[in-house]
Design brief:
Chain A is built from six helices and no strands. Chain A is mainly alpha-helical. The relative contact order of chain A is 0.07. Classes of the chains: A mainly alpha, B alpha+beta.
């Protein structure tokens, strides 16, 4: 009887585990391009690490560098005057709110 | 505790840029890497339109995203001191620009080259001080990040003179931009002291921090003009 109970508990726990596992989305494997980009020396340059990592993650230039509805409240002289390519940091939070992505906005709860 | 904050009153600001000129001379920032900028934009619809003047300098955030980014790349060049002032150590900065990329206010600037305040003319003011004798925040280097320091050299002097209570009151211990405003649109002092002028005025005017959605909790407060972006 004791063995039967243990066997039933084992079957139940295994089936519950598979149900729970089905709820968790499969972890996206890190591509070789992303790994290579992350290994670069940190740099903001057009061919630097920051841009390389985003490119490896299939983020298009226009996804961040939009000319529409640009937030003017930036100290940066060139950006605030409406030059090409300003990045609205609020746009960063669309992706970077994900717990799996790094965030520098420590006051924002993920 | 002393927590230094700045109040900027958009309703008083007339966009004269005296604060920017004062900062340029005091901290000899280069056009490439301004520490203080005037943003101008219009709000409303004709015929009811008006211009908003919004000076931007470092917000000296409670939760500085620049520091988080700097720490993440291992440079550890950005610190926040006991007054809440966020400072960049030029000797540790690796010039990656990640601080500039993440700051919601676009504050840190990569200084591409060292340039005189007035090219082709004799050195002005603090430019005459020998490099080694300058305050660390004025020992500029090319290709590192720099930004407003709340005039850290003056705050350090207040500490050295044992006159922390005079910060925001005496010229020698108050950031230059806050001293020169002809319309008294700027104020600086200790928000933790409920009797300080700045704390009273922030409370009385309901001044707000810009872009609260980032959770950075800036130490610069704005009295917003009607219709102004926040």
């Amino acid at each position: 009887m004791k063995r039967l109970t243990l066997l039933a508990a084992l079957v139940l726990s295994l089936s519950a585990g598979s149900v729970l596992a089905a709820d968790v989305p499969a972890k996206k494997p890190v591509s070789a391009a992303t790994k290579a980009a992350k290994a670069m020396k940190p740099s903001l340059g057009e061919k630097g690490r920051l841009h390389a990592v985003h490119k490896a993650e299939d983020v298009e230039c226009k996804d961040c560098h939009s000319k529409d509805d640009v937030d003017p409240l930036f100290l940066r002289a060139a950006e605030s005057q409406g030059s090409q390519g300003p990045v609205d940091r609020e746009g960063c939070m669309v992706c970077h709110k994900s717990p799996k992505k790094p965030s520098w906005y420590v006051g924002v709860k993920k | 505790m002393t927590k230094l904050v700045r109040l900027i009153d958009q309703k008083r600001c007339m966009g004269c840029r005296a604060c920017i000129a004062a900062c340029a001379v005091e901290n000899h920032f280069t056009p490439d890497a301004p520490w203080n900028t005037m943003i101008e934009y219009e709000v409303g619809t004709f015929p009811k339109v008006k211009k908003i003047y919004n000076t931007m300098n470092c917000m000296h955030c409670e939760n500085p995203s620049c520091k988080a980014a700097c720490d993440s790349v291992g440079a550890m060049a950005i610190t926040k001191n006991a007054f809440g002032v966020v400072l960049i150590d030029y000797d540790k900065c690796i010039g990656c620009g990640y601080c500039a990329a993440v700051c919601p206010y676009g504050v840190p600037q990569l200084n591409t080259e060292l340039a005189p305040l007035y090219p082709g003319k004799p050195k002005q003011g603090a430019e005459n001080i020998a490099y080694a004798d300058r305050h660390p925040t004025h020992r500029k280097k090319a290709k590192v990040a720099e930004k407003c320091t709340f005039c850290a050299h003056k705050l350090d002097q207040a500490v050295a003179d044992g006159k922390v209570d005079r910060i925001g009151k005496d010229q020698a211990y108050t950031p230059s931009c806050d001293l020169v405003c002809p319309t008294q649109a700027r104020m600086f002092g200790d928000i933790d002291d409920p009797n300080s002028d700045v704390a009273k005025r922030i409370k009385a005017t309901g001044a707000k921090q810009l872009k609260p959605q980032f959770g950075n909790a800036p130490q610069v407060y704005y009295v917003l003009e009607e219709g102004a972006k926040s």
